[in-house]
Design brief:
223 residues; alpha+beta; NADH Oxidase; 4-stranded antiparallel β-sheet; two-stranded antiparallel sheet; binds 3-iodo-tyrosine
Length: 223
């Protein structure tokens, strides 16, 4: 730790556990209203809102602070159309041939299929990439540490930020997604991680009647 450059930690500003619990529960309630949406309105959203939410994602912790993520926000109709066509090509293959029966059974409760009209209807698509390797100033490859974990955390914050801003999201993972590098002109060292569909829900939007696991099923204490 010799010669480590440091700055003071920004102040944590709660007073007592009562206030902390109230704040924690307020956030639980707020995030509890988030639902994955597949039925979007085409109502537009300003680029500034999207940029602010991506800035939140950029505050995520990352392996060796390498921040191994890249976000491409697309509102251009022609580009969205190309993404939809490429995704539907892969999805048709998935639903008609590639997906094992067990997987399709697991998806039945969500009502998904190979048609992805939301990729054109929703005002924004955010393609998220992680860096498989970095590039040194001299052009050499630089190792990346925990890029999947880091990018996963960043996407979690991105989804929370978009929800807080009052927007709906769909975490979409067409597979394989290599077409995103080509359409969005990203270098080979970046691997597509997922495609986030962002917008307002359609007026008559409905979502699957599914439940979140209760606390006892997702956690336990050892005190
Ligand atoms: N990628 C496909 C299938 C799919 C897979 C999972 I796991 C989901 O939670 C939902 C869908 C699709 O987007 O339809």
């Amino acid at each position: 730790m010799k010669n480590l450059k440091t700055v003071p930690l920004p102040q944590y500003n709660t007073t007592d556990d009562g206030e902390r619990l109230a704040r924690a529960r307020m956030f639980t309630d707020e995030m509890g209203t988030r639902r994955t949406v597949r039925d979007f309105s085409s109502k537009t959203i300003s680029r500034d809102v999207i940029a602010a939410c991506i800035n939140t994602a950029g505050t995520s912790p990352s392996g060796a602070n390498q921040q191994p993520w890249h976000f491409v926000a697309v509102s251009n109709s022609a580009v969205k159309k190309r993404i939809r066509e490429a995704a539907e090509l892969e999805e048709r293959e998935f639903y008609q041939h590639r997906a094992p029966g067990e997987w399709l059974e697991a998806l039945a409760q969500l009502g998904t299929d190979e048609n992805k009209p939301f990729l054109e209807i929703a005002p924004w698509l955010i393609a998220v990439f992680y860096e498989r390797t970095g590039v040194e100033i001299d052009g050499h490859k630089a190792k990346r540490y925990y890029p999947h974990e880091s990018t996963g955390i960043a996407v979690g914050l991105l989804i929370a930020a978009l929800h807080r801003a009052g927007l709906a999201t769909l975490t979409h993972t067409p597979s394989p997604m290599a077409f995103l590098n080509q359409i969005l002109d990203r270098p080979k060292n970046e691997v597509p991680y997922l495609l986030l569909v962002v917008g307002h829900p359609a007026d008559d939007c409905r979502v699957p009647d599914i439940e979140r696991k209760p606390f006892q099923e997702i956690a336990n204490f050892i005190e």
